[in-house]
Amino acid sequence: MEIKVRKIMCRVDEILHEGGPVAEVPQKKGVIMAVIANPYAGHYEADITPMMKALEPLGAELADRLVAALGGDPARIEGYGKGAIVGVEGELEHGALWHVPGGYAMRGALGEALAIVPSTKKVAPAGTEIDLPITHVNASYVRSHFDTVTAGISDAPKPDEIVVALAMTTGPRVHARVGGLKAAEISKKDGLR
């Protein structure tokens, strides 16, 4: 199966402050999205798993491109997440096809990321935005890294398309101060704590 890409969008935000003092090291949030054809749009297909395997090279390409956009050093990436927006002729399960190729691609690009990659998906018309959840790459319980990246593309997804997305951050929320496990305290190496 061939994955047909119509366009790719990449954006990096640099957050200097959130109303408090300017951060010593600004947080960067990046998102990359690809608009792809949905071969299952408009009809029910019992076995959609061939597309999951076919998405793996795109996942790897997008993960590498996003790391590069955030400075090129995988060790600087501290948070990640993923998501998909399925055009209205598709079904929610078509967005779930991105779980494995998107998540494992980011883990591969980052080396030893241990935490599950948080995800979201929805069926929606062109121009819809999606909030991609973010957690720490090695421990899901690190509260300072609970975050989101909102992204969308004005002309996508068309009814027979899917927008697949990856997000990464270079640090905690600016002004994070609600306690909990700190990144420097990760000890269990179980993806949680």
TrEMBL record:
- InterPro entries in the record: AA_synth_put, BB2672
Record Gene3D superfamilies: BB2672
Highest taxon in the source lineage: Bacteria
**Name assigned to this protein:** Amino acid synthesis family protein
